[in-house]
Design a protein that fits this description.
two-stranded antiparallel sheet, mainly alpha, 5% strand, Transgly_assoc, transmembrane helix, membrane, cell membrane, 85 residues, Putative membrane protein YeaQ/YmgE (Transglycosylase-associated protein family)
Length: 85
C-alpha cells in the first residue's frame, strides 16, 4: 500500500508542478508520476529534507524540484520544436 501511496503523491506533485509552470508534462499521468519522483530526488539534493512528509516525500523540496524539472523539460522540448521548423 505504501508504494501505491507514493505513486499517487508523486503524480500529484508532478501535476502541481505542471500547473505552477503553466505547461503540460509529456506522458500524461505516467509523466506526472515520473516528474514527481525525479523532482523529489532533485529537490532533496538541492534543498535537503525539510517540510511536511507525505507519502515518503518531503513535500516542499519535492514540489520545488518538480517545478525545476518541468522548466528544464519545457526548455528542451521547446528547443526541439524550434529545431524541426
Amino acid at each position: 500500500m505504501g508504494f501505491l501511496w507514493s505513486l499517487i503523491i508523486g503524480g500529484v506533485i508532478g501535476w502541481l508542478a505542471g500547473l505552477i509552470m503553466g505547461r503540460d508534462i509529456p506522458g500524461g499521468i505516467i509523466g506526472n508520476i515520473i516528474a514527481g519522483f525525479i523532482g523529489a530526488w532533485l529537490g532533496s539534493m538541492i534543498l535537503g529534507n525539510w517540510g511536511p512528509v507525505i507519502g515518503d516525500f518531503y513535500f516542499i523540496p519535492a514540489l520545488i524540484g518538480a517545478v525545476v524539472l518541468v522548466f528544464i523539460v519545457s526548455l528542451i522540448m521547446g528547443s526541439m520544436r524550434r529545431g524541426r521548423s
